[in-house]
């Protein structure tokens, strides 16, 4: 079977030319609009459980929490865009079941949609802490609705405990501090952002948080979260006996890919919906993109599941091009950013694979870029407050992904 034959549902199963996209996050929304940009003339239905029209998630932990942007301003497109481009947007309803033999998707509102191609862009949901089970009011941040609820809780400027010192946890901490809350961050690892940055680059950011009044406590294993019904508030206890009291507790301990629909349909799932480099799942005509997809790392070997905005967007665009007729692989070089206390941190590739590095500027002053190399080849770039330099170095890293390159 040709590459194209595998990507596009074979004729004997063919439904009328109709692409159903599950999930109105950036991967799904970008897939829909790219299909139209590519001249796709079939029907497009974009279905999302979220009641809102597609919006940008990154501002949720930043401007939305700080109250510096209105929710209408984070929409991906003006409301009229979808109908003007003949994209049927169905928000506030889930796809509850897929039948990959009949090529149909059943919606919670009772509709059954036949499809020629289907894109699972179901994203992820916040990982739940076992210690938070049954404790009322512990916040998790993923949707606009959850951001609005957290913003309301922070408005009182009462103390906050954030569990998790990854990028999202630290952005929440910085925003809460900017609002005037006392903030404690509890992290199980021995340093913040341990999945993203080497210790020597995370240290200056750790210092920045402390300087701005955010207390980051590392090596903390949370064993209990207690809600005080009468007086309100919470006590968070660690295994070593330390405790923190706060009016608000936020758990920001990572993302779990949303794979239940794929699993129930019998698709291959392993830390995400398993796809090939073109986003194709184990079922013919069914693709997956964004945080939900687990794809081969064609640069470094093994497999990879991203949890970053640009990666999800670029995968949504690639899958749409493939459906529209141009077989397009997923980009091989993920990149992301984070904003904390006015410092923009940008990361691309795999700095963790670097065996040597070259620093420009001063990491201690949070004004630097670092190129990581392995056997002479660029494998990653980190920049702090150097967006123009990051753009140039990312091109260098992109060039190094070409097979013949030694840069
Ligand atoms: C608070 C926050 C801040 C972030 N900041 C940054 C940042 O600064 N930089 C960065 O690079 N990345 C950031 N990210 C990560 C980035 O936003 C995500 O990687 C990206 O949004 C993933 O897009 P997605 O379309 O794959 O999934 P999602 O955005 O999760 O969208 C998936 C959608 O699918 C829907 N869905 C799931 N199942 C079904 C179903 N069965 N039927 C219908 N709909 C369904 C969900 O409701 C959801 O709306 C941030 C994430 C969060 C939560």
UniProtKB/TrEMBL annotation:
Instruction: Supply the alphabetized keyword list.
Output: FAD, Flavoprotein, Oxidoreductase
Domain FAD/NAD(P)-binding, by residue range, is: 18-316
Query: What Pfam families does the database record attribute to this sequence?
Result: Pyr_redox_2, Reductase_C
| UniProt keyword annotation of Protein biosynthesis present | no
Where is the chain membrane-spanning? none
Q: What is the lineage of its organism?
A: Bacteria, Bacillati, Actinomycetota, Actinomycetes, Catenulisporales
Q: What is this protein called?
A: FAD-dependent oxidoreductase
- Please verify whether the record's keywords include Lyase: no
Identify which cofactors the protein needs according to its UniProt entry.
FAD
Q: Locate the Reductase C-terminal domain: which residues? A: 335-404
